[in-house]
Amino acid sequence: MSKTVTSKRLMPKRLMLEKFIPKKELTTTSTELTLTLPFEKRQKSRFRAQLTNGLEVGVMIERGQVLRGGDGLQSTDGQIVLIQSADEEVSTVHCDNAFDLARAAYHLGNRHVSLQVGESWLRYLKDHVLDEMVKGFGLTIKYESAPFEPEIGAYHTGHSHDNHSHSHDDHTHSHH
After folding, report:
1. pTM of the model
2. What is the pLDDT of residues 99-129, one digit of tens each?
3. Does 29 share its domain with 80?
4. CB-based burial label for 25 (10 Å; 0-12, 13-18, 19+)
5. Is residue 140 part of a domain?
6. Do residue 119 and residue 129 come from a single domain?
């Protein structure tokens, strides 16, 4: 009589990342642990992901904290993971005329578009409707795959505003 032996498949323990370390406070960038994420994921405070080496991780950081390329996360066992911004499909507008660039930034911002601002350029996640609007201002768009690091906003302080609202002439926004 033979015994059937069932083996339990050993699942690697998930690394839990719970402490945020801003780029300016990170004392080392020579970690072998790297987490590459698009902006959409870097805005979340709780999610599962996979490091570039394949290791599964769980991220649980303070709500409202946005991860930037070069920031770090520390695991519950003290390991440091370096955050990299993933390349994303973006529209980049280069313009040497400050007025035209400011005008485009104003209209994009008025539509609550996440916007990365450079010295003579703007970048946003590729969107054909926004692209047509910007082209309508006489500006040229370069489509590329690049890291997206938009402005966080004037009121961002790393915490949420549960009863925040604001209005425009014809409509109101409530954020609860």
Report:
1. 0.76
2. 999 999 999 999 999 999 999 999 999 999 9
3. yes
4. exposed
5. yes
6. yes
pLDDT digits (tens, 9 = 90+) for 121-170: 999 999 999 999 999 999 999 999 999 999 987 555 444 434 444 444 44
Question: Which CATH number covers residue 103?
Answer: 3.30.70.790
Q: How many domains does the chain have?
A: 2
Can you spell out the DSSP letters for 9-57? Answer: PPPPPPEEEEEEE-GGG------S-EEEE-HHHHT-SEEEEE-TTS-EE
**Does residue 129 lie in a domain region?**
yes
Query: Distance between CA atoms of 46 and 123, rounded to whole angstroms?
Result: 26
Q: How far is CA 162 from CA 41, 45, 158, 168, 176, in A?
A: 21, 16, 13, 20, 5
